[in-house]
């Protein structure tokens, strides 16, 4: 009881409790619990195939979970579908980067405006004015302003990744789940991206939950990190604590 | 709107008005051209802009035709009696009866087609890619076959539409005007529609529907609205076409799946799908090719048409507008902006 009260009083935006998910015989997530605090940057790490993306998919409603509970801002969302969860203010990006490949960058941005209830959006609204300005501003923020009229599918992979990030910001979500935001991006650009992620968190007040393989990135960025291994929660803590945790080191070096 | 676009619209308007005056013998052919433009343009809402290749839009054409016929007759006579023994009653509609019936028939056809599209939507929009194409094709074929079994509306024998009450010369001009105005209305509506958020949303569905959904776009609602717009105009043009032809029956006239149902797709592909002008250009070219081969290559016309279709699909998938955009991207505003980025960033 004390435990439950404690968690209610905490400031958690996403709260995952005892979630399990199996694909046929493969147990991708076993009894996972985690919490993403409002305003924080939370990291999820773990070796390939440990169930990070499965967990993301469970949270955003891509597939039903076998058991457990997922709450977003106090509301149970484990039975709600993708579109409805997105309209509550939870947006995710994809590991394989998904943008609208035949539209130009500005169009990609403009269609990414929030469709939440109460958001200033109408089906037949025009595309000038405030949303256009914001699209241009955010494209500048990620350094794609000069390429804004190009067909987005013709951009390089790294640029597409930045565009997808900008599109997510355009949506003004409460929380943004990023699946390996720096994978395939060159080292100089990575520093810029870390800076932009942090600014999105501080200036725009967007809570971030980041899956990342690049240890340098995640240790710099996140305030709290969860480590998964073989579908189970292995450890969690502050970056410094995890860095020295023998179980985490073993998992990454194949010690299990 | 640029100066060139204005000149283009003026030229089309001139042709639309002067065409039947200068070439009265071709009035019906030019009217058919506008019908084709409308069909290709409305097909492109889903097929081109949204990436849902419907082979069943002709359903709304046929449904509109029959809805209109039923409204026009039933307002003044018993439909069963009118259609049963063909010729048992040969009613002469007065001016008032005819035009009131026709007006309400056309509107009713549009509204009825929208209702049908909204009922079919939740079923067929669960399908994607080739399954959607085959699913909608099945709907169109089933609609034609089912209509043929209902004796009350003439069954396979069809319905003779009410006679035009005014003199015969004004008849072709009257229907020509309806076709031209409807096609023009569709073009103007789509021109506006594609400039709104709606246009972007259906493009987003075409490029990556799962992404669109995960960004919170209510995709089903957009699909429904897009199809309903196509259905409305296919229904109204079906009503006009039925009256223009004067006699309707299920397979060849109302639900011509293998001809007009395919033509509208072919026209959009030829002109360049997913563009405002592609279907228009495609419809004009296709109509010219079709009329020419039907006149000069009679007996081989289907072979010629098939050959063009194959060449189009195998070697020229992007269509005319798509090809132009590849060749002259800067004319379509696809440019790197050199000036704006210069050192503005940290």
Question: Could you describe the 3D structure shown?
Answer:
The complex is a heterodimer of chains A (256) and B (346). Chain A has 256 residues and is α/β, with parallel strands linked by helices. Chain A has helices spanning 2-9, 52-60, 82-88, 105-110, 130-141, 157-170, 187-203, 215-221, 239-243, 246-252, and strands spanning 12-23, 26-37, 41-45, 67-72, 75-76, 90-92, 175-179, 207-211, 224-229, 232-237. Chain A has 2 domains: 16-89 and 173-256, 3-Layer(aba) Sandwich (Rossmann fold); 101-119 and 126-171, no CATH class. In chain A, the strands form 2 sheets. Chain A has a 6-stranded mixed sheet, with helices on both faces. The model of chain A is unreliable at 1-9 (pLDDT under 50). Chain B is an all-alpha fold and 346 residues long. Chain B is built from 14 helices and 2 strands, in the order H-H-H-H-H-H-E-H-H-H-E-H-H-H-H-H. In chain B, strands 1-2 form a two-stranded antiparallel ribbon. The A-B interface holds A 60, 82-83, 86-87, 91-92, 94, 98-104, 107, 110-116, 121-127, 140, 143, 145-151, 167, 171 and B 193, 195-198, 200-201, 203-204, 206-208, 210-219, 221-222, 225, 274, 333-338, 340-341, 344-345.
Count of individual helical segments of chain A? 10
Please write the CATH class name of chain B.
Answer: Mainly Alpha
Q: What percentage of residues of chain A falls in helices of 4 or more residues? A: 25-40%
What is the residue-averaged pLDDT of chain B? Answer: 91
Strand portion of chain A: 15-25%
CATH C-level category of the largest domain in chain A = Alpha Beta
Q: Tell me the overall shape of chain A.
A: globular
Structurally, the number of domains of chain B stands at 1
Discrete helix count of chain B: 14
- The tally of strands of chain A reads 10
Q: CATH homologous superfamily of the largest domain in chain A?
A: P-loop containing nucleotide triphosphate hydrolases
Helix and strand run of chain B = HHHHHHEHHHEHHHHH
Which protein chains make the most extensive interface, counting residues with beta carbons within 8 Å of the other chain's beta carbons? Answer: A-B, 41 and 36 residues
Low-confidence stretches of chain A: 1-9
Give the percentage of residues in beta strands of chain B.
under 5%
């Amino acid at each position: 009881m004390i435990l439950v009260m404690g968690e209610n009083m905490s400031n958690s935006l996403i709260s995952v409790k005892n979630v399990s998910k199996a694909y046929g015989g493969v147990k991708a997530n076993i009894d996972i619990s985690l919490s993403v605090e409002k305003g924080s940057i939370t990291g999820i790490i773990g070796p390939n195939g440990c169930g990070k993306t499965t967990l993301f998919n469970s949270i955003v409603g891509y597939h039903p979970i076998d058991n457990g509970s997922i709450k977003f801002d106090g509301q149970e969302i484990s039975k709600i579908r993708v579109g409805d969860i997105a309209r509550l203010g939870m947006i995710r990006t994809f590991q394989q980067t998904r943008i609208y490949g035949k539209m130009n960058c500005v169009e990609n941005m403009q269609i990414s405006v929030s469709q939440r209830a109460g958001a200033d959006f109408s089906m037949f609204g025009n595309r000038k004015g405030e949303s256009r300005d914001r699209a241009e501003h955010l494209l500048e923020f990620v350094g794609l302003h000069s390429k804004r009229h190009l067909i987005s599918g013709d951009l390089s992979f790294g640029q597409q990744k930045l565009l997808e990030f900008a599109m997510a910001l355009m949506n003004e979500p409460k929380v943004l789940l990023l699946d390996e935001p720096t994978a395939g991006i060159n080292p100089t650009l990575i520093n810029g991206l870390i800076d932009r992620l942090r600014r999105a968190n501080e200036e725009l007040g967007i809570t971030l939950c980041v899956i990342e393989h690049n240890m340098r990135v995640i240790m710099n960025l996140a305030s709290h990190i969860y480590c998964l291994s073989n579908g189970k929660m292995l450890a969690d803590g502050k970056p410094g604590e995890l860095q020295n945790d023998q179980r985490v080191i073993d998992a990454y070096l194949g010690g299990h | 709107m640029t100066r060139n676009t204005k000149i283009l619209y003026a030229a089309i308007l001139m042709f639309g008005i002067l065409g039947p005056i200068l070439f009265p013998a071709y009035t019906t052919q030019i009217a058919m051209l506008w019908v084709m433009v409308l069909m290709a343009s409305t097909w492109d809402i889903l097929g081109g802009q949204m990436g849902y290749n419907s082979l069943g839009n002709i359903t709304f054409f046929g449904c509109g035709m029959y809805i209109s016929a039923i409204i026009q007759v039933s307002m003044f006579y018993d439909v069963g009696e009118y259609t049963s023994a063909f010729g048992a009653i040969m009613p002469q509609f007065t001016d008032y009866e005819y035009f009131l019936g026709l007006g309400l028939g056309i509107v009713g056809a549009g509204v009825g087609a929208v209702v049908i599209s909204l009922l079919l939507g939740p079923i067929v929009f669960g399908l994607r890619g080739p399954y959607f194409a085959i699913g909608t094709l099945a709907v169109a074929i089933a609609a034609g076959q089912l209509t043929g079994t209902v004796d009350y509306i003439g069954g396979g024998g069809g319905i003779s539409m009410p006679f035009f009450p005014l003199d015969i010369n004004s008849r072709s001009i009257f229907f020509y005007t309806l076709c031209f105005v409807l096609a023009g209305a569709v073009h103007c509506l789509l021109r506006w529609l594609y400039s709104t958020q709606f246009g972007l949303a259906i493009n987003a569905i075409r490029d990556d529907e799962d992404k669109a959904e995960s960004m919170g776009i209510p995709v089903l609602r957009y699909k429904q609205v897009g199809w309903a717009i196509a259905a409305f105009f296919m229904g109204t043009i079906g009503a006009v076409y039925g009256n223009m032809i004067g006699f309707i029956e299920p397979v060849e006239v109302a639900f011509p799946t293998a001809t007009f149902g395919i033509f509208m797709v072919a026209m959009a592909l030829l002109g360049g799908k997913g563009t405002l002008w592609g279907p228009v250009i495609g419809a004009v070219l296709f109509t010219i090719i079709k009329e020419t081969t039907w006149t000069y290559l009679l007996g081989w016309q289907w072979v010629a048409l098939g050959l063009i279709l194959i060449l189009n699909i195998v070697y020229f998938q992007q269509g005319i507008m798509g090809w132009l955009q590849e060749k002259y991207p800067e004319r379509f505003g696809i440019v790197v902006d050199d000036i704006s980025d210069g050192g503005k960033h940290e």
